[in-house]
Design a protein that fits this description.
Chain B: Its main location: membrane. Chain B: InterPro entries: AP1_sigma (IPR044733), AP_complex_ssu (IPR016635), AP_mu_sigma_su (IPR022775), Clathrin_sm-chain_CS (IPR000804), Longin-like_dom_sf (IPR011012). Chain B: Adaptor protein complex 1 (AP-1) is a heterotetramer composed of two large adaptins (gamma-type subunit AP1G1 and beta-type subunit AP1B1), a medium adaptin (mu-type subunit AP1M1 or AP1M2) and a small adaptin (sigma-type subunit AP1S1 or AP1S2 or AP1S3). Chain B: One of its GO terms (cellular component) is AP-1 adaptor complex. Chain B: GO terms for molecular function: clathrin adaptor activity. The structure holds two protein chains of two kinds. The radius of gyration of chain A is 37 Å and the shape is flat. Chain A is an alpha+beta fold. In chain A, a hairpin with a 4-residue loop joins strand 15 and strand 16. Helices cover about 55% and strands about 10% of the residues of chain A. In chain A, the strands form four sheets. In chain A, strands 3-4-5-6-9-8 form a six-stranded antiparallel β-sheet. In chain A, strands 12, 13, 14, 15, 16 and 17 form a six-stranded antiparallel β-sheet that branches. Chain B is of the alpha+beta class. In chain B, about 50% of the residues lie in helices and about 25% in strands. Chain B contains six helices and seven strands, in the order ββαβββαααββαα. In chain B, the strands form two sheets. Chain B has a five-stranded antiparallel β-sheet with strand order 2-1-5-4-3, with helices on both faces. The chains are: A alpha+beta, B alpha+beta. Chains A and B meet through helix 1, helix 3, helix 5, helix 7 and helix 10 of A and strand 2, strand 3, helix 2, helix 3 and helix 4 of B.
Amino acid sequence: MPAVRGDGMRGLAVFISDIRNCKSKEAEIKRINKELANIRSKFKGDKTLDGYQKKKYVCKLLFIFLLGHDIDFGQMEAVNLLSSNKYSEKQIGYLFISVLVNTNSDLIKLIIQSIKNDLSSRNPIHVNLAMQCIANIGSADMAEAFGYDIPKLLVSGDTMDVVKQSAALCLLRLFRTSQEIIPGGEWTSRIVHLLNDQHLGVVTAAASLIDALVKRNPEEYKACISLAVSRLSRIVTASYTDLQDYTYYFVPAPWLSVKLLRLLQNYTPPEDPGVRGRLNECLEIILNKAQEPPKSKKVQHSNAKNAVLFEAISLIIHNDSEPNLLVRACNQLGQFLSNRETNLRYLALESMCLLATSEFSHEAVKKHQEVVILSMKMEKDVSVRQQAVDLLYAMCDKSNAEEIVQEMLNYLETADYSIREEMVLKVAILAEKYASDYTWYVDVILNLIRIAGDYVSEEVWYRVIQIVINRDDVQGYAAKTVFEALQAPACHENMVKVGGYILGEFGNLIAGDQRSAPSVQFQLLHSKYHLCSPMTRALLLSTYVKFVNLFPEVKSTVQDVFRQHSNLRSADAELQQRASEYLQLSILVSTDVLATVLEEMPSFPERESSILAVLKKKKPGRIPENEIRERKSPAPPSSYHQNSHATAHVNDNKNSSADLLGLSTPPASNTGVLVDVLGDLYNSTPAPAAQTTYNPKKFICKNNGVLFENDLIQIGVKCEFRQNLGRLGLFYGNKTSYPLHNFVTALSNPSDWISKMNIQLKPVEPVLEAGAQIQQTVNAECVEDYTDAPSISIGFVYNNVPQKLSVKLPLTLNKFFEPTEMNGESFFARWKNLGSTSQKSQKIFQASSPIDNDSARTKLLGFGMQLLDGIDPNPDNFVCAGIIHTQTQQIGCLLRLEPNKQAQMYRLTVRSSKESVSMEICELLADQF
Amino acid sequence: MMQFMLLFSRQGKLRLQKWYVAHPDKIKKKITRELIATILARKPKMCSFLEWKDLKIVYKRYASLYFCCAIEQNDNELLTLEIIHRYVELLDKYFGSVCELDIIFNFEKAYFILDELLLGGEIQETSKKNVLKAIAAQDLLQEEETPQGFFEDHGLG
């Protein structure tokens, strides 16, 4: 145990030693609990504790808290210490309160009273202790209580320097809490004049305060400009011995210099030519000093010196008025680019980003392009490489765009995963912005997809499609290029999307070439179809129907594809719908109507690139530096952003106008036609969302769709099941133009489910922004069989009104079915085996809609059992088999459904090895017909 | 303005934390955990700065201890390194070749010294002499007060 300094509390030291000697986490917790019990009993005991003991116990509590444990008592004892007449006790009391702040504590009044007493003490050490406490907590109560005392201490003539220093920063802290605290009028000039104070410590502290005040009201504090310049001038011309202890490793007052340079960045360059001249002189001196040989080899010397230099450069860039200084700054930073110190290279790259945006120094920055490219490739530290990428982005213009984009593409192949997405965005933006030839742009984006397909976000590939559609000079080239790209044996799914879309629109432009004849194009695309996600398949189906229009010769091939079992009867509702609608469209409609419906897409409205918005969002700390001038270029409809994969499936009706995927983004003038055509074919086209849509029974036989919808919110769902495990994605969409606050979801009646199912709701963000959508994942594990399905309750605040919903999850028992294939022989054998009444369940019921074999088939397929054809002698009857998986057992299940068309009745029989299961399965399914 | 300062060991144990911006304990713990993991994963020659959320992190290792500060976009990274260094110098002077154990056993002193150097997240006093003078004055006040708790110290603590 090291020697204890000062007044040393041995008991505390012993306790800390004990903790350090604990061999395990458990031992440590045990020791801590013992100590907490001890302290609690001491605090509660009859014996009054003396100040020393209180101090010691409070200190132990503090130590325990700092180890990461919760402390919920001892506040009162700490507050008692504040009024001790012993400084050491008072100090520990203040420390405890500062660390375990609880501004709404009942004790705050007592604390404020103690602080008041100490503020009026004659001993500056006590006064400072009180102010440190205010600065540490800085609550609104304190701003109110001390709004008068602290400014007075700050400017009063007989306040000691050390107290003034604390008062300045204490006031700053209170000002950050409540802005009204600063008195105006004559106070302004007295505060500003602190910059002239004899004591450099006071000036340093005051400079921080003034910087904050200036930010709020620059005009009122304008007098600080000339004071700051003359102070700075005195510092930079001082020799390092002049300032005594304020010289830091041979650099005169670096902290104050930086503060002053920072303060001046709140204003435009000084108007007074004298002041301006002096400031420029200071900046020149600082730049000159950077070229002098170092006065010390210590890193502290170079850090302090360069800290001032970087701040001076920052002011030069901010003023952006002295070309000479800007170019000098650029050369200085250029030298740093190859400095030994990683820190300096990092900062130089960062500062150069700003220089690149000034018209005076942009060209000077470009001279360093090669070094910067090398930094991007060779730096060992990813944060430095990131800075290099940012700088390349910032220095990019028409003259070097091709080279920079090419270098970034090359680097992307090996770039760190952490920066790839951002690089992709940057490359996409630069390529678009500086494309003089759009074939180059198309090449760049396709390369992006090839090299870093996983990092190419929707915005990027949407964008390339928009641009191709809007520019007819590039369409033929784009079609040819995607066709070639798709020939690669393994190509990224994003490539299939772009390729599919573009060939669907412009495939005809390359169809003349035998190598890319219509059937070749179709086969090429279709060879990828089975490897793609449902979303991409949906897009390809649209491409195929467009082919029907473009190339009548492939019509029958395409129709065969629509007719395929996996499409027409796809488990994915969107694919099923597209396949059947497109099929009917191609069969029923005349070529004229077909040509109108499937006409080429109209141009997209011209707006700013949405990719830029994404980049801005990714980097909230700073603005992307390659400032995009207000140039008009096409952009997607604003709702793209929220239109994630899932919504594209889930709420097809609602977002149809924004869905790039959907054929439902029709030419404006043709909207009516499309709707009419489909309307004739399907009178069952879903009506626009009614006030509240909620029909949990619908989800017994399907896994995806809109689970709930009212005026405020739409809840979509997508689920997957494997054996006894299920995963649900819930998509909450805010339909209003206000954010929904305090958004919480929880399982209703969790105790009912605890033994049946393990359900785990992933946390969601508490705020659902206007028009936005958030996703919540729910994992479920079936433990044993059950009835009905669990519900979740959803709460949020809309427009200050709390809302509460309860929604049943699509987690009925049948979801855990695994379909089982079997022949007639074994089916009947099992059927007979399950003959006892406790294993059977039967229901006879009226059909709710006219009996239709096709729709019954679809429902049974969706129900999850294997539909066994050719087993029942009566072809109208349905026979199914499946196994329900639970954690504890597997339950085999057989089913027979006999429709009676004359009577419009059904008889449903379910047999399984468990009575409760037979009953529940029968119950669930009977409602569906 | 500095938002917080953390001192932690190579093993990832937090030794001192000073927050200049109020956060709930849960958030503080989360931030601490994340940053310790990020910084300990970095190699020695790497740059001392990193971007983290909308803050800049400046860190430096002294023997077995890492000093890590979070500053705002407008703050000067290099000078923050020197704030750390000045703090280390002050601890060193006060304890006489400071080591991690000194900070563990005298954490309250480490806080008092820090409060003299930085206040409300801004530098208060850059002069080493002046800070040490202020601390010495505090110690003097303590010594004048009669030492108590003799019995406590000899076994009954």
